Amino acid sequence: MSELGVKICGITTPEDALVAQELGADYLGMILSQGFSRSILPDEAVDIGLVAETPLVAVLVDESLDEAQRIAELSGASVIQLHGEENVEYVEELRRRGMWTIWKAVRVRDPEDVTRAVEGLGTSVDGLLLDGWHPDRPGGSGVSFSWEGVRVMRDQIPSALKVIVAGGLTPGNVADVVRVLRPDVVDVVSGVELNIRRKDPELIGAFVRNARGEE
Prior knowledge:
Elements: E1 5-8, H1 14-22, E2 27-31, H2 42-51, E3 56-60, H3 65-75, E4 79-82, H4 88-96, E5 101-108, H5 111-121, E6 127-132, H6 147-151, E7 162-165, H7 174-181, E8 185-188, E9 193-195, E10 198-199, H8 201-211
Parallel strand pairs: 1-2, 1-8, 2-3, 3-4, 4-5, 5-6, 6-7, 7-8
Antiparallel strand pairs: 9-10
C-alpha cells in the first residue's frame, strides 16, 4: 500500500471492484446495511471478494452486534466502518468477536466534533473517518466540511488513530484536502461515479493520481 491510502466506496459490482483496484485503490468500500441507494447484500459482497485482492471495507449503520458480526464474516471484510450511533462498548465487543480493523465515522459540523470523538472513542477504534454533516443521512451525502477548521487541531489526533477524510471529495479537490489535513486515507463515493451505482474509470484514475500528486 502506498503512503496515502485511497478508498473507493459504494462499490456494487465485481466489475467496478476490479477497475478500482487496477487503478490503484487501497480499499474497496461496500454499503452492507440495507435501505441506502448503494446498498448491496452480503452475498453480493462475496462475489466482489472473489475478484478483489484489495482489502474490503464493510460500511454498517446501527446494526446489532450479532448482525454486524454476521455481515462482516459473510462479506470477507477486513475493515468495519461504523456510521451510526455505535458507542465505545459496542466497538469493544465487536472487536472481541473478530480480527477486524474498525473505523468510526464522525459527521463534522465544527472542529469540536472531532475533539469529542477522539476523547470519547480513545483507542477503541483504529481510525476516525471525518465526513460532512447531513441532517438526514449518516454518510455518503457528498457534503463536505471545513478542512481549515479541522486543520488547526489535526496534530491533536493521536498518531495511533488513522485519519480517513471523506465528504464531497472529487478529482478536482482531493489534492487540496491532502495538503490541508494530511490524511492517512482519502475516501470517495459520488465523486467518481457515472451514476449512483456505477463507477467511472476515468474519474477513479484521476482521483488516485491527484490524491498522490502523480502526473
